[in-house]
Model the fold of this input.
Amino acid sequence: MKDITLHASNPDDPPSYEDAINSLPVAAAPAPAPPPASGSPSSVSVAPAMTVTTHIAAAAAGVRADLVCVAAGVRRELVGTAVGVRHELGEIARGLGCVYSEAHKGWIEARSLLRPEPRRSGCARQTRPLTGCKREKDLP
Done:
């Protein structure tokens, strides 16, 4: 893969897409075809068109390869950043007294694991919420 140096108009600004496109290498134009022979049944030459098509295909393949490499690098950076953020959030959650629960597929308060969940035996009375919050009818 070729290294592409991007030049921005202002060194403090990141390069634009136009700068990136303008900095791509340009393939040399193919040599012109020799004129057809006077006794030739066809006056149209196919060879230059094939050469141009070949150059375009090669350039497109090179650009695609460069874009795939750039996309892979960007993905790798994003995955690394996401893993770092997830790790930091885990540290914060642990500091707040939370633990990751596979059953809940997320972070929960560690103290909620110590309290048993109310039984759902089908009785009509309501149990008090585990959070310690008062119900509206209990408020003055």
Notes: Residues 48-111 form one domain. DSSP finds three helices and two strands in the chain. Helices lie at 17-22, 47-95, 110-114. The longest strand covers residues 98-101.
